Every structure is written in C-alpha cells, then in structure tokens.
UniProtKB/TrEMBL annotation:
Protein name: Alpha/beta hydrolase
Domain of life of the source: Bacteria
Species the sequence originates in: Kibdelosporangium lantanae
Length: 41
C-alpha cells in the first residue's frame, strides 16, 4: 500500500513494536505532516 501511495519510509524514534503507545507524539507529528503534503500539494 505504501508503494501505491508513494509514501516515504519513516522510522519513529524509540518505538520498537508499537509507535502508537511507545512514541505517540512523534507518530502523530509524522502522520499530520504527511497528510498535509498529500492534501495541499
């Protein structure tokens, strides 16, 4: 799916298995930034 969306590879710092619980702030920041670039090219 990431390939079809032309999504970039990203690593969430300090998250080994579940970024949602291990580093939610970094995950949310990355997601919002990505979504904004998709919605406002």
């Amino acid at each position: 799916m990431a390939e079809r969306l032309d999504a970039d590879f990203a690593v969430i710092p300090n998250a080994i298995h579940s970024p949602t619980t291990e580093n939610p702030t970094a995950l949310a920041t990355l997601l919002v930034t990505t979504w904004r670039t998709w919605l406002n090219p």
